[in-house]
Amino acid sequence: MKAAIVTIGDEILIGQIVDTNSAFIAKALDDIGFQIVEMISISDTEKAISETMNRYQNQVDLVVMTGGLGPTKDDVTKKTFCSYFNDVLISDSEVLKHVTALIEDFYKRKITQMNIDQALVPSKATVLFNKVGTAPGMLMKHEQTFFVSLPGVPYEMKYLVSEVLIPYLEQSFEPSYNIHQTLITHGVGESLLAERIADWENDLPSYVHLAYLPSPRMVKLRLSISGKDKVFLEDAIREQVEKLLPLIKDCLIGLNENETIFKVVSDLLKENNLTIACAESCTGGQIAKLLNEIPGASAYFQGGVVAYATQSKIDVLGVSENTINKNSVVSEQVALEMALGAKRLFKSDLAIATTGNAGPSKGDSDVEVGTVCLALVSKFGEKTFTFNFGQPREKVIDSAVNKAFEIIREEIIKNNS
Amino acid sequence: MKAAIVTIGDEILIGQIVDTNSAFIAKALDDIGFQIVEMISISDTEKAISETMNRYQNQVDLVVMTGGLGPTKDDVTKKTFCSYFNDVLISDSEVLKHVTALIEDFYKRKITQMNIDQALVPSKATVLFNKVGTAPGMLMKHEQTFFVSLPGVPYEMKYLVSEVLIPYLEQSFEPSYNIHQTLITHGVGESLLAERIADWENDLPSYVHLAYLPSPRMVKLRLSISGKDKVFLEDAIREQVEKLLPLIKDCLIGLNENETIFKVVSDLLKENNLTIACAESCTGGQIAKLLNEIPGASAYFQGGVVAYATQSKIDVLGVSENTINKNSVVSEQVALEMALGAKRLFKSDLAIATTGNAGPSKGDSDVEVGTVCLALVSKFGEKTFTFNFGQPREKVIDSAVNKAFEIIREEIIKNNS
């Protein structure tokens, strides 16, 4: 079961937007056993679209295309899709009814010819009904390949993939499985980790694939296996994980495929009925955002303050001016007072604070570029830390955010086990 | 000058990560006149890499590949790259010196064989020296095509593209130009906008390409033109922009290629010496993040509170319990008290607040899903608003954030012109 994913639009090719649709579709297809052989972004011209359809015709079982289904002239996917199959466009009465209702009832204006034309679909296509927008998805089987065309607006695409396309594909293809097991490690670099597990890696059977995914402070190890016999696949992965675990016990933070240290911390907070707040300077809201975006965040996340300006640290968080003058605004003492301020303001069990200079140039403080101070306060005590995360800016911020979550995790585990 | 961008890694094909490298490279190449014909993501196997190199050989002038250059076994790009050109790997003494220094001085540990091997490069390659990491970039010209291989770690790739590759390409290729002019409109839907400008669009010369890029509350119109004669290209675009402007005057918010309503608001705040703070509930830190991430934010952004829990609205922002009980936590009155609280806490000139129910289910309030209340307070007065942005959740949050910036923009323009 091979698949290709095609995104259509010059805005992608000139770098005006990042294509996030492909990853969403890939994940959904991988989950039901497809092997994605290529993802490609192409221009919104009839030539590029039909050449790409041709290239994948009979080479893969499924081609999922997104984009180019809008009502305006620059969107040529529907026309090209239709002529590729030598079909004609007809108006779908269900779609027309839906578009009319959406425009007239929700947007409260009269329907126009462009809106009416959105209900046109190739006569032989299976319509993938789009409840959350005006452009329907379309599916056509041609020789050995299913071709699917979906709108590019992310929330419309997501709805159609999850609610309409995946259930359809599950009925149309024999079950197949991709099993991935990701092991997330923090604090040990990629090459050191590789040397540590070299013997195990050399003994891996050829049908188990290992990948290293490094990012600041973290390496994900992903074991993958594909096939039809789910029990065999799961056993094969489990056997390898059991051998690997003792080798990485000290730096392992989680085992769930989509686990992150953010999710781990979120789960620990929930399990232990702890609440948290944050006070951020150099991480500028990233910690709050990460604490906040996990479903169920309201159970533990009390809130956060982004105290960007030095004056805000004094006014909002109650950091003493004297502490700043004596120690510099980037100091463990200031981080500590920020954390205490957040804990007091939000009445939380824990509070984490960051203050640093992410660079590229020196800011309000004259500490070295890359320096970050962190503080964690809780009923178990107060802790402060100083690190230098080097450069560039992006790496400093990522490292500081990750380190903050490592600190929170260790504190909760140490005091609750 | 045609180019293709190739990203290598199964983590992309299974949807484990979103490929953001391609957009960065595309933008950089587009800026110096390249036409990106395709972006493709492929598996990290020798077969997929060499087939893809073959496919683009002599079809494009430049192929930029990222990923698969790490020290571990799953990274096969360097080996494949080298054997594609029938070359051999040799150790580069400059790179080895740099890797040794980085490991021994910065990470304070002994260098290993894996680190030493990172200094291997094909003997005929031009080395793109990587100051911010251990894996060097490589460049080889083969027949009509330049092939470039870069590490996939985003900040390393960005450094190499901006500081090393682009200057090299500017010297190696004759100057060519892609001129884009983006006009950003807010508040008028795509099909209504298209009908309004239909006559102008029909009269566009064939060498000027128009694209519509819709997202919640916003449509970007992008005019593009490519060629060698910069003066002609710029004149042709300017002529069309001048004809288009009067047709969209009421909904236009900006003309800079990379302008966003966030950048527009940031500029307005700076020009008028105004400071701002925010208090967010349903937008969960998005407004703070957007205010914060524009360079120079410290000139106007005083800080923000993410008051997720109802109790935090009371404790931190000083919203009265009585107001919440009388009006519901999602109400204009609560939004107003949140904004007043943020303005007082951060001593800012303006403060914006959001409270709403983004769905999918009803939360602390029983207002309809999709309802968002906003408030803006400033020395010019207090304003409150209620909207229903429908569903799904993502669209509600995007719409609320955009609407918040529209409100700030209008308020500043009205009172400072």
TrEMBL record, chains A, B:
InterPro entries: CinA, CinA-like_C, CinA_C, CinA_KH, Competence-induced_CinA, MoaB/Mog-like_dom_sf, MoaB/Mog_dom. Residues 4-172 form the MoaB/Mog domain. SMART domains: MoCF_biosynth. Belongs to the CinA family. PANTHER family: NICOTINAMIDE-NUCLEOTIDE AMIDOHYDROLASE PNCC, NMN AMIDOHYDROLASE-LIKE PROTEIN YFAY. This is CinA-like protein. It comes from Paenimyroides tangerinum.
